[in-house]
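Why does residue order matter? Because the sequence determines the fold. Keep that principle in mind as you read this record.
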Amino acid sequence: MSCRQEIPSYVPLDCDFEKGRVNAMAYIIKEKAEEAIADNTLLSDPTWWTTVTNPGDVLIHKEVSGTYAAAETTIPGRGNQQNRLGGFNHTTDLQVDSIKGNEDYWNKLNISTDYYQAIISDNYNLLLFSTVACGIMGRVTIEDSLESVIFWQVVTSWSDISNPITSDVPVGIFN
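Structure:
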């Protein structure tokens, strides 16, 4: 049995390239995130980001620094295929400023189960959006250096076989 996929055309970047580093990020409550997953065009619409029912529906951090990576998980293959893709473990590892007075904010997010994540990269030109709810782990990091800066180390993770949804960044929301 073959599961032939209809593969869409690849979108080339002409002569440009997309720059690394996560520049900004947001957490979006499940009900609102599901709207964007159903209609990806909402992700580039500034009105969608600012129209909220409760203040905690969309939590935006305009200046962060960090990484995104996805590690594959494999499952047994079929026929002569040794293994096949079972999914990805997606992870962002970000540094967020402003320690004092924000412990309750991160304590509540650490136990939440209904937020999705948007990350902004390519010098605020590319948005990536998780396709399932995330686990959030925010903790204070202090290095042994008088020249260092204290920050929240925020690791967000989710498991899904799909890559994040990509979109243009909504104007005026993240920078």
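The chain has one domain: 24-167.
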